[in-house]
Each structure stands twice: as C-alpha cells, then as structure tokens.
Amino acid sequence: MAEYKCRHQGLPVVQRCHFPILAALCSQVYIIHRRDEFRASKIMQKRTLAHPKIEVVWSHVVVEAYGNEKHRLGGLKLQSTKDGSVRSCKPTSGLIS
C-alpha cells in the first residue's frame, strides 16, 4: 500500500485525508500542518486524530521535496514553524497539496 503526505490547512486537509478514500487506500497518511491546531469542526478533528492510519506533524512546513535515483519522490524536508529547525521525512509514495 502507498504512503502519502498531505500539506494543506483547515478543513480541506481533514476531509482529504479522512473521507472517503485516501486513508482507506494508503498504509499511512501524514498531515504536515503549519499550525499547532486544526480549524476544522471539532467532530472532524476528533475523527481525524483518532484514525489509526493518520499521523499529524504539527507546526512544520514543507521546504523541499526531493527525488531518488529512480526519479520518483524520495522524501521531504520539513522546517519547524516554532524554532526553524529542518528535518527529513522518510521516503513517501505521494504528496497532496
């Protein structure tokens, strides 16, 4: 199964990652969110955070998407919105913005 990272804000990312298909089709979904909270409705937040295949990376933004030797998406570099530190995110199958 594929593994996807989502970069967006508010209700759209919660809907994209939870309903109806993405989380069901992927082995893991990561939501990369620039803030430390969602602006979606409380019920949507609760459903998303409780989903076993969805993991939220709080307070980070994507600064680089890099490829691998097969010319496919190899991973992401994420920057913290709190302290500016940069870290790499493991290889992924796709990115939804």
Describe the structure.
The chain is α/β, with parallel strands linked by helices and about 100 residues long. It has a single domain, classed as FAD/NAD(P)-binding domain (3-Layer(bba) Sandwich). About 25% of the residues lie in helices and about 40% in strands. The strands form two sheets. Strands 3-2-1-7 form a four-stranded parallel β-sheet. A hairpin with a 5-residue loop joins strand 5 (about 75-80) and strand 6. The longest helix is centred in the N-terminal third of the chain and has 9 residues, at about 10-20. The mean pLDDT is about 80.
- What is the CATH-assigned architecture? 3-Layer(bba) Sandwich
Mean pLDDT: 79
Q: What amount of the residues lies in strands? A: 35-45%
User: Nearest-angstrom radius of gyration?
Assistant: 13 Å
Question: What is the number of E strands?
Answer: 7
Q: Can you list the strand order of the major beta sheet?
A: 3-2-1-7
What assembly state would you assign to the polypeptide chains in this entry? single chain
